[in-house]
Amino acid sequence: MFTGIIEEIGTVKEVMPATESLELVIAASKVLEDVHLGDSIAINGVCLTVTSFTEDAFTADVMPETFHSTSLSKVRRGSKVNLERAMSANGRFGGHFVSGHVDGVGTVSGKRQVENALYMDITYPSECASYLMPKGSVALDGTSLTIFGVNEKELTISLIPHTQEETILAQKAIGEPVNIECDMLAKYVERMVNRQPEKPSSNITMELLERNGFA
């Protein structure tokens, strides 16, 4: 489990590709301070397992499912990546619940500076539509953000100067891919409401949630 608060920007040192998988070596510092074999580290919002490490880098495997369903297949030697360690039970929870399981890959479709904020438009896949709403939460390349606006094809987010400096999002060019993880709570609510068991086990409906301010 992660919070979407990026701890540092790492650099891809090596990419060892197979046909439908990868082995990545990532140069880092902060996320290695207390690292152990088997630890989870989110790379651009994708939860991966540390398989080896040194004082200044760690290695992780990208399996075929992750290769095909995230943007990690596009990284190259020298690519910058967002890094976050799995959250600790005694830390502050600054973002939102982020699982590190990407729902789809979007594309940067627009960028514009407005005062100190950078607005970015992201074209998203249709399967994400149900979970995106103004003022809702979304993780882009692992970064916890509030949705500024959304239409049938694009969502808009606004990056404050700190996020522009401490994540890779501001450096993305038009046309570049972005990993999207929708709000976990929204996905669970939809699943619960739309599930139709033979013998209904719950009286919770969308109408009931809306009436009580939960949707």
Automatic annotation (TrEMBL):
* Molecular-function GO terms, alphabetical: riboflavin synthase activity
Q: Which GO terms describe its biological process?
A: riboflavin biosynthetic process
Q: Which UniProt keywords apply?
A: Repeat, Riboflavin biosynthesis, Transferase
Report which superkingdom the organism of origin falls in: Bacteria
* EC numbers, comma separated: 2.5.1.9
Q: Which residues form the Lumazine-binding domain?
A: 1-96, 97-193
Keyword Repeat in annotation: yes
Which reactions is this enzyme annotated as catalysing? 2 6,7-dimethyl-8-(1-D-ribityl)lumazine + H(+) = 5-amino-6-(D-ribitylamino)uracil + riboflavin
- The protein's name in its UniProt record: Riboflavin synthase
The organism named in the record is Bacillus thermotolerans
